[in-house]
Design a protein that fits this description.
Keywords: Kinase, Transferase, Two-component regulatory system
InterPro entries: GAF, GAF-like_dom_sf, Sensor_HK_TwoCompSys, Sig_transdc_His_kin_sub3_dim/P
Organism: Streptomyces justiciae
Number of domains: 3
Structural class: alpha+beta
CATH class of the largest domain: Alpha Beta
Protein name: GAF domain-containing protein
Helix content: 40-55%
Strand order of the largest sheet: 7-6-5-10-9-8
Shape: elongated
CATH topology of the largest domain: Beta-Lactamase
Low-confidence stretches: 56-68, 71-77
C-alpha cells in the first residue's frame, strides 16, 4: 500500500459493506473488504452469539473463539502475522474480525480496519432491522391468513390444523403441533403438521406434574434449546427434535391449548425476534379460534331457533290440518247418504293434497342455505314470500304443481316473480288479511289451448266491493 492514497480504497470498502441488506451477504462483504483493504490472504468473522441472528448453522465452533462466518480464501491459516478487530452493533458486541496471511500488519492497516469495523457495525444493524421487518411482515401476513381461514366455515379440527400448518411454515419448524388440556390435568397432542407422516405424534400426552406443563397451564411460553436432552421434556417423541417453542393459545383468560414448534435435532435455535413474533402469532391465533368458536355457536343457535320455529309451524298448520281431516273422515263414516260421503271424501282428499304440498314446501325451504341467495326457481319464489312475511306478520302458504324447475324458462320465471312481488305488495296493504295462498302451476292450460304457467295469489282480506277474499291471477305460455 506504500505510495498509494489509502482514501479511495477505504471509501470503496466502506461503501461495499452496505450494498446488501441480507445479513449473511453483508458479513461476506465485510470479510472481502477487510482482506482487500489490508492485503491479507485470509480473513474470517466470528460472532459472539451466532444463535441471536440464526448464524450458528454456517460453521462449527473454532478453538479461536466465536463462530467463523466467512473465510477468504478457504484453507488453513499459516503461522504469520494476525490482527483482530472487534465489531459492535449499537454498543453491543457482535463479533471479531480476524485477518492473517501477511508478513506484517501496520498501524495504518489496523486504523483502516477500525474504520471498516465501525461501518460494518452500522451495516449489520441495518441488515438486522431489514431481516426483522421481513420476518414481521411474514408473520403478520400469516396471522391474517389464519384469521381469514378460521372465520370461514369449517369444523374445529380443521381450524386447529390450519393454525399448526401455518405456524410450522412461518417458523421454519420441523412440525407444528397443537396440544389441549385433558381431563386428568395433562395435555394431549390433538393435531400435528409435519413434512412427513405425523406417525405416533398425535395422541402423545404430557403427564400431570411436568414442569413444562405447569408453565403452559399458567399461560407462560416455554423455549427449549434441545428437546432431546432437556430434562423438562418427558414425551416419547422428544428425541426427534432439537430447538422448540411451546406457546400458550390463550385469549380473554381462556386457555385453548398450546402451539408447539419443534425443529430437527442440530437445527439452529430460535432467535429472540422469532420468539417474539411467534408469541404474538399465538395470541392472535387464539383470538381467532375464540371468534370462530363464537361464530359457530351463533350459527348453531340460529339453526336451533329455526328448527323450533319450523316445529311450531308444522304443529300449528300441518298437524292441525291432518287432525281436522281425520275428524272429517270419522264423521263421514257415520253418514248414511252416498252423495254426502262422496263430497266429504273429496274434500278430505283435497285437504290431504294441500297438506302434502305444505310439507314439501317446508322441506325444500329447510334445504336452502340461509346465508346464500337462492339459485332455483322454487327458492326464489320462497324468498319473495318470506320477504312479504315481514310486512304481513305471517308467511304466505306456497304450493307448486308440476315440474316448475324444468318447464319454466328463465325469462318467464322473471316475469312471474315480478307479478308475484306486486300481488304480495297489494295484499299487504289490504285490510283484514290473515292468510295468503300462493300457487304456481306449471301444468296449466291457457284459454287458447296452449300449455302455460299460472300464478294464483289469493288472500282473505276485505275486498273493495264489501266482500271478502281477493284472487290475483297471472299466466304466460311456455
Amino acid at each position: 500500500m506504500t505510495g498509494e492514497d489509502p482514501l479511495p480504497p477505504l471509501l470503496e470498502a466502506v461503501l461495499s459493506v452496505g450494498t446488501d441488506l441480507e445479513l449473511r451477504t453483508t458479513l461476506q462483504h465485510i470479510v472481502d473488504a477487510a482482506a482487500e483493504l489490508t492485503g491479507a490472504r485470509y480473513a474470517a468473522l466470528g460472532t459472539a452469539d451466532p444463535g441471536q441472528d440464526g448464524l450458528i448453522e454456517i460453521l462449527p465452533q473454532t478453538s479461536s473463539g466465536g463462530t467463523p462466518i466467512s473465510l477468504r480464501p478457504p484453507g488453513a491459516v499459516p503461522a504469520t502475522a494476525t490482527v483482530t478487530v472487534p465489531i459492535s452493533v449499537q454498543d453491543e458486541e457482535f463479533g471479531t474480525l480476524h485477518l492473517a496471511g501477511k508478513e506484517t500488519f501496520t498501524a495504518e492497516d489496523e486504523q483502516l480496519l477500525h474504520v471498516l469495523a465501525a461501518q460494518a457495525g452500522i451495516a449489520i444493524g441495518n441488515a438486522r432491522l431489514y431481516e426483522a421487518a421481513r420476518q414481521r411482515e411474514r408473520w403478520i401476513e400469516g396471522a391474517a391468513a389464519v384469521t381469514t381461514a378460521l372465520l370461514s366455515d369449517g369444523p374445529a379440527a380443521d381450524a386447529l390444523t390450519t393454525v399448526a400448518e401455518r405456524a410450522r411454515i412461518l417458523a421454519d419448524a420441523s412440525a407444528g403441533v397443537i396440544l389441549q388440556p385433558t381431563e386428568e390435568g395433562g395435555m394431549e397432542i390433538v393435531t400435528a403438521s409435519t413434512y412427513d407422516n405425523p406417525g405416533d405424534i398425535v395422541g402423545t400426552t404430557i403427564a400431570p406434574g411436568s414442569p413444562v406443563l405447569e408453565q403452559l397451564l399458567g399461560g407462560e411460553p416455554v423455549f427449549v434449546d434441545d428437546s432431546a436432552t432437556d430434562p423438562r421434556m418427558t414425551t416419547h417423541v422428544r428425541h426427534r427434535f432439537g430447538p422448540s417453542m411451546m406457546l400458550p393459545l390463550q385469549a380473554g383468560g381462556r386457555l385453548i391449548g398450546t402451539l408447539a414448534l419443534p425443529r430437527r435435532r442440530g437445527d439452529r435455535p430460535y432467535t429472540s425476534v422469532e420468539r417474539l413474533l411467534a408469541v404474538q402469532f399465538a395470541s392472535q391465533a387464539a383470538l381467532a379460534l375464540v371468534l370462530a368458536d363464537a361464530q359457530h355457536s351463533r350459527e348453531l343457535l340460529a339453526v336451533f331457533e329455526d328448527r323450533d320455529r319450523i316445529a311450531r309451524d308444522l304443529h300449528d298448520l300441518v298437524v292441525q290440518r291432518l287432525f281436522a281431516t281425520g275428524m272429517m273422515l270419522e264423521s263421514t263414516q257415520r253418514r248414511a247418504g252416498a252423495e254426502d260421503v262422496q263430497e266429504a271424501l273429496s274434500k278430505a282428499v283435497d285437504e290431504l293434497q294441500s297438506t302434502i304440498q305444505e310439507v314439501r314446501t317446508t322441506i325444500f325451504a329447510l334445504q336452502q342455505p340461509p346465508a346464500d341467495a337462492p339459485t332455483t326457481f322454487r327458492g326464489k319464489v320462497l324468498r319473495e314470500t318470506a320477504g312479504a312475511a315481514a310486512l304481513l306478520g305471517f308467511t304466505p302458504s306456497t304450493q307448486f304443481t308440476g315440474p316448475v324447475e324444468s318447464r319454466i324458462p328463465e325469462q318467464v320465471a322473471g316475469q312471474l316473480l315480478t307479478a308475484l312481488r306486486r300481488a304480495l305488495a297489494t295484499a299487504s296493504r289490504r285490510s283484514g288479511v290473515t292468510r295468503i295462498e300462493v300457487t304456481v302451476d306449471a301444468t296449466a292450460t291457457l284459454p287458447d289451448g296452449r300449455e302455460g304457467v299460472r300464478l294464483t295469489v289469493h288472500d282473505d282480506g276485505q275486498a273493495g266491493d264489501g266482500g271478502t277474499g281477493t284472487t290475483v291471477t297471472w299466466q304466460a305460455p311456455l
